[in-house]
Design brief:
The protein is built from four helices and four strands. The protein is of the alpha+beta class. The chain has a domain at 94-182. The chain has a four-stranded antiparallel β-sheet with strand order 1-2-3-4, covered by helices on one side. Helix 2 runs parallel beside helix 4.
Length: 298
């Protein structure tokens, strides 16, 4: 109940103070400087509100706190996110490209790889220097490395292939020369046999002439180059005029070599020498009547 006694007047100020008054703004605690913070346990929810995160008036919902500002570039050792200067990209190494292209080309034209791959290897090494990090002036180190490896591999392949081809050619040439030498030996042996056969044939005709000429090798006997077919030669048969010659004894058809490849020399009444001019093969007739002969030894 109301107290209306004198001296106890109603306090206008008290009634006014009972009316609604807005809540005073919460006081923000002073933020300590970095490095001067109080050490103590941190509890969830004991977070300092962001500036401006004050309670709303009128009972409305609280507004969402704004995002924190980004840290300044380089603060507390963190990388800055400020303006970065524009850095133009490095040009691609043409030497690396050339090295790789040469390696591929020499794989096709492998005989030239022994020289070409050396050039490609030089380009590749130069490209590795240009693309070396840090401080490289060009990019394309992987391609340069591939060019170096490719040129080395192709160069080794070229050396092996060229060596194999060279060895095969050498063996083929050696085999051809061996066959040529064998053929030459066989040919010379065959020619020697043919010459010996011709010399013995001439010696037989010389014996025939000796018999038909009254056991003499003197001129005047019958020409016996027909081989004495039909028996003794008649009186009207052609006679040897002058010194006895090869064509008085044989014809080309009787010999393996030409008649003019031989030389006949009568050295006595019963002796003579028959020589093959190109081979210097000489048959000596020791006694034409008894058909004693031997080959002259060089």
């Amino acid at each position: 109940m109301n107290d209306d006694t004198p001296g106890n007047e109603p306090n206008v100020n008290d009634s006014a103070s009972n009316q609604w008054q807005p809540n005073p703004a919460p006081q923000q605690p002073a933020q300590p400087y970095p490095g001067n913070r109080q050490q103590g346990p941190a509890y969830p929810g004991n977070q300092q509100p962001y500036p401006g995160n004050r309670p709303s008036y009128g009972g409305g919902p609280a507004s969402a706190p704004p995002p924190p500002p980004p840290p300044p570039p380089g603060a507390y050792g963190q990388p800055g996110y400020g303006y970065q200067p524009f850095r133009p990209s490095k040009p691609f190494s043409g030497k690396a490209t050339a090295s790789t292209v040469i390696a591929g080309a020499m794989l096709i034209f492998f005989p030239l790889g022994i020289i070409g791959n050396i050039v490609g290897l030089v380009f590749g090494v130069m490209a590795l220097k240009d693309t070396k990090e840090p401080g490289g002036t060009h990019r394309g180190r992987g391609l340069a490395m591939g060019g170096v490896i490719g040129n080395i591999v192709v160069w080794l392949m070229s050396v092996v292939i060229c060596a194999a081809v060279g060895f095969a050619i050498f063996m083929a040439v050696e085999d051809a020369q061996r066959n040529r030498r064998n053929y030459q030996v066989e040919r010379e042996q065959q020619k020697k046999e043919n010459v010996d056969e011709d010399l013995l044939k001439v010696a037989e005709r010389l014996n025939l002439y000796y018999i038909e000429n009254q056991n003499s090798l003197a001129p005047g006997g019958p020409v016996v180059n027909d081989g004495g077919r039909g028996g003794l030669y008649p009186e009207d048969h052609p006679k040897v005029q002058g010194v006895l010659r090869m064509d008085d004894l044989v014809k080309d058809m009787d010999l393996n070599e030409s008649v003019y490849s031989y030389k006949l020399t009568v050295t006595g009444e019963t002796t003579a020498e028959i020589e093959h001019l190109s081979t210097k093969r000489v048959l000596i007739v020791d006694d034409v009547g008894r058909q004693l002969t031997h080959f002259k030894v060089e």
